[in-house]
Amino acid sequence: MSSSDGTNLEELQRENWSLLKDQIEYIIGNADEMNIMESFKQLFEVNVLVGQRLLVDSILKNQLKKDIPVVYALLVALINSEMPEMGLLMTKESIALFIKGYNNMNNLETFTMATFIAQLFNYEVVHEIVILQILHLLLEDLDNGSLPVVISLLTHCGKKLVQVNKTIHNAIFEKLRHLLQSGRLSRDEHVNLEWLFELRSRNYQNNGIQSTNLKVLEGEMHTFMIDTGELRPDFKLTEFIYDDNYVEKETLFESLKLKVYKDYFEEEKDKAETVIEDRTGITDVEFKKNIYLILKSSLTGDEAAHKLLKLRIPDDSKDEVVNIIIKSSIQESTYSKFYGILTERLLGSHRSWTPAFIETFKSNYENASEFEPAQLRIMGKLWGHILATEVISFEIFLNVHLNEEESTPAGRILLKFLFQELVGELGIDELRNRLEADSSKSYLVNMFPTDDLENIRYSINYFTAIGLGSLTEEMRDKLKSIEDELKQIKVEEEKKRQELVRSKKEEEEKDRRISRYNQKPVSRGPRSRTPPRRSRSRTPPRRNRSRTPPRRARNRSRTPPRRR
């Protein structure tokens, strides 16, 4: 093999490892009491033989997070029956995590791993010696708060311990009885220990722990000697390691997958590669399940697209397929190019897929409030990639009304991530050119409005707030033009108003004059009456009147007085 071939193979393995990690994490993250067998089946739709370290890591992390040991222990038991090396690795890592938590006084790790190991013992993945070593470790150090762990461990696996080694079981309880009678326990410890003895007397019935009667084929039981000083968990389980036997493992996995289907799913005639040719007689649930399995069993988007196109799905069912693709993509922790390539291939295969994608985007936007912010981010990135590749036009925005009344906060968040992805893939200048193209404008009239002043301002403010204000230059010019036009209209209206007021005043003044000059006497009856006297004008002050100068006194003689 040449060096270039080796490099290409390593790149392929690395890419497949990343996809395998996402697929396994999704399956384990969704496993619960109701779908254990379905999860088991899904794990063999991907190459779990290559990814068994990823599987161990994912199960342990989910057990620490969710603490559902019955589910994960049963899943491990099912896989252990076909892949005992995975069961051994799980035993080592779970014990190592338990020891780590115990030494560091980490109650979360201690309790969740103790109950998980107990359930592995119940399903005969772990040998009784492992349980006895753990109990011995805990009982030797009861003063360190280990009694609650002992009680939890025996609650989970006491019944199984009675069945496999009753003598050891009874010896443990004798030691616990002495402790109960010693008076060294706190009130809570005393009550809990009494409850354990009561549970033992009922043969561990009604212990509050769910169990299952699912069939598990006999697998290899693993014994592991605990060394508290040397045992360390492997924190590099998810790191990629080049495998020289990768091709051989691929072939071996195909044989293993057929065996699993024969052992556990005999009633199903279809194997892992079989897909639905039509939907006749198949329920919607089964149809969606098979679409989902195709997505999760494909290592690349091209492979998934090829499998889906082989189904020849009717046009009226394509929107369901697109909806499943979108919902699967947002269940990932981050945006995966797997789904971008898949949608690109589907849209590029035939134009009949376009209406399904348009309808799905409309639904996503209208119901955006139903999704978490992280899901909206992934969804926005996926739709942004689809638009950037030009496999679909801006027609999907026809029903997006970007204004205060018709948009929602969640919908605006979706658009934000979508446009940011478009800018990331195309660049701001190329995106602006596409948006301003004549072929696009008819689809963007509601997102980039040009007729309503309030809507224009709202759209400008929105894109400016998300850092894409340069996309609004055309709207800004239009806004300025409209504002100038409105200002001019107001000026003209004010002139007309003032002219009207002035004209009205002049008219009123004219009317007053006419009324004053045309005023006539008012007739009060048939007889004419003398008009009222006009008030006399007063005589002006004497100083203003001409005065006749006084006569001179005459020199008239006066009659002399009579004589007496």
TrEMBL record:
PANTHER family for this protein: CELL CYCLE CONTROL PROTEIN CWF22-RELATED, PRE-MRNA-SPLICING FACTOR CWC22 HOMOLOG
KW Nucleus (keyword) present: yes
Basic residues bias (residue ranges): 526-564
Region (Disordered): 496-564
Ranges of biased composition (kind: Basic and acidic residues): 496-514
Alphabetized SUPFAM superfamilies for the sequence: ARM repeat
An individual GO BP term: mRNA splicing, via spliceosome
Keywords: mRNA processing, mRNA splicing, Nucleus
Entry's Gene Ontology molecular function annotations: RNA binding
Designated name of the protein: Pre-mRNA-splicing factor CWC22
Residues in MI domain copies: 286-402
One cellular-component annotation, GO: U2-type spliceosomal complex
Main location: nucleus
TM spans (from-to): none
Organism: Vanderwaltozyma polyspora (strain ATCC 22028 / DSM 70294 / BCRC 21397 / CBS 2163 / NBRC 10782 / NRRL Y-8283 / UCD 57-17) (Kluyveromyces polysporus)
Subcellular compartments: Nucleus
Family: Belongs to the CWC22 family.
